[in-house]
Specification:
- An eight-stranded parallel sheet has the order 3-10-9-8-7-6-5-4. Strands 1-2 form a two-stranded antiparallel ribbon.
- It is globular.
- It contains 13 helices and ten strands.
- By secondary structure, the chain is an alpha/beta fold.
- The relative contact order is 0.12.
Length: 350
């Protein structure tokens, strides 16, 4: 007799929920990407709790670590039990990179990630960031020096190349791995493509094929479960990194990992669930940052957490709040608003 029950769904990683990078176990395949301006311990704590197996700091310039400011040290402070956390540096010259990375190891970071993807003019003018995609030999020298000097995994995050006409990521990734890189992450746009072009799954897949022997991470344009699964399937990646789409939406990690394991999609959070996490987040901000900075962060995060409830006027009212109490009073008013979308909107790209 044939059973009338539907077959049990399975996700593409139903039997392998996590992986290891350089001997460090990671229980899921969805990670927080480095993001300029989103770096503080409360954010990392929340994203980790919702399923980000690895958190990475925003890109840090090596010279900033020679005499680090108090504000930088506050943002780089690791909480008790926070593990693992990678620190990302923009580097070119081995000596300065080793000094910076060693300082970050002294601060307790568990991995050092090297940025070969930043498209900003100032960084590229120094020959760093995405400019390194034009110098594969220099990449090899830098990674070799760091691997030999450090007692932790060294990983790299890169773009597809300097231009769409010269996608160098397969070559650069292979050189990085041959010189000891423990993992490679690729964003499928070139430096000149900035964020205007489509994230190229094909070049990410070709880079994956060039380095089949290490954990490989894909990045770019992940905004929900569907785009995450597409990135996995099209590139053969072992894991993905999510940037701005996770700001105000930590549930994205849990929802994607659940889909990878079960083939099913969890529901979106409601207002009360969003409000509970937001309150936790900003209360922690006011504990670890100066009041002025904490309020600035809290207003910024409100735009992400409550984007589905806000129109232009509502955003303006939140932007004008002068203290925590006034900010929360404005957010109290949102409970009665009918959401304009199903989930928080995260329009900014990684």
């Amino acid at each position: 007799m044939i059973s009338s029950q539907s077959p049990t769904k399975q996700g593409i990683f139903h039997d392998k929920p996590g992986l290891e990078i350089g001997g460090i176990p990671l229980p899921s395949r969805v990670f927080m990407a480095p993001m300029i301006g989103y770096n503080e311990p409360p954010l990392r704590r929340i994203l980790r709790r919702f399923g980000s197996a690895l958190c990475t700091t925003e890109m840090i310039k090596p010279e900033m670590l020679i005499r680090p400011s108090k504000s930088l040290l506050r943002e780089l402070a690791l909480e008790k039990g926070e593990y693992p956390v990678a620190a990302q540096i923009s580097a070119r010259e081995p000596e300065l990179a080793i000094r910076a990375a060693s300082r970050l190891r002294d601060l307790g970071f568990h991995m050092i990630d090297i940025n070969f993807g930043c498209p900003l003019k100032k960084e590229c003018a120094k020959g760093r960031g995405a400019a390194m995609m034009q110098e594969p030999k220099k990449v090899g020298i830098l990674i070799d020096a760091l691997v030999k000097a450090l007692d932790c995994p060294v990983t790299v995050k890169m773009r597809s190349g300097w231009s769409d006409e010269d996608p160098s990521s397969p070559e650069v990734a292979r050189i990085a791995v041959d010189n000891g890189a423990a993992s490679v992450c690729v964003h499928g746009r070139s430096k000149l493509g900035w964020y205007r072009t489509v994230n190229d799954h094909e070049i990410i897949r070709k880079t994956r094929e060039a380095v089949p022997d290490i954990p490989f991470i894909a990045n770019g344009d992940v905004k929900d479960v569907e785009t995450a699964l597409s990135l996995f399937k099209n590139t053969g990646a072992d894991a993905i990194m999510i940037g701005r789409a996770s700001v105000g939406n930590p549930w994205i990690f849990k929802r994607i990992q659940h889909a990878l394991l079960t083939g099913e999609t969890l529901p979106f959070p409601n207002y009360h669930e969003i409000r509970e996490v937001y309150d936790e987040h900003i209360n922690s901000l006011f504990e670890c940052l100066k009041t002025k900075n904490a309020l600035r962060y809290a207003r910024k995060y409100a735009f992400f957490y409550f984007a589905q409830f806000l129109n232009k006027d509502g955003r303006g009212l939140i932007a004008k709040t002068k203290n925590k109490e006034a900010l929360l009073a404005e957010i109290d008013e949102l409970e009665s608003v009918t959401p304009r979308e199903i989930c928080p909107l995260n329009a900014l790209k990684e």
